[in-house]
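>> received
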Amino acid sequence: MVRSAITIQHQEKLEARTIINRASIEHGMDIAEIGAGGGGHTVLPIAMRVGEEGHVYAIDVQKNMLEILESRANGHMLHNMDFIHANAEKINGTTLDSESVDRVIFVNTMHQMEEKGIAVKEASRILKPGGEVLIIDWGTKLGCPYPALESYCFDPHNIESEIKDAQLVHVDTFYVKPYYWGLLLRKNV
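>> returned
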């Protein structure tokens, strides 16, 4: 996964509390963030929110990003995290047990995936019944905010068949100003 200067510059506009609130993350939950990266912008505040009774799985295909993230987590004294070098674009690719997490989070990740459908199925596989998947990525109601971001943006409706195939139910589609859209999906009980 390649992150551009544009992505890094504008990612700060998407606050971690927006993600935590949209995903209804609570103390004691088990969370997987797919495409966690090295910055910890989302996953470190999530680890703080779930506390020692919860657990966070930071998953990324780039081992060096996980090493940076682990160092940052240690600096924050967060001991409720695992750092998993894995490919979520394969079934069983995350290496997590089936039905093992309450929430799966994708933030600025889905647009980089070639096998979006498989990633959604893998998220569903590791999700507990009644658990939710939150996908937040680039785009606005009017499309991409800047021509330079065009390759980062896609319409969330383009993965509707993949969502259905993964046996997830659409809960909400929303926009987060100024640059993002989001999808909240639930696994049936």
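>> DSSP finds six helices and seven strands in the chain.
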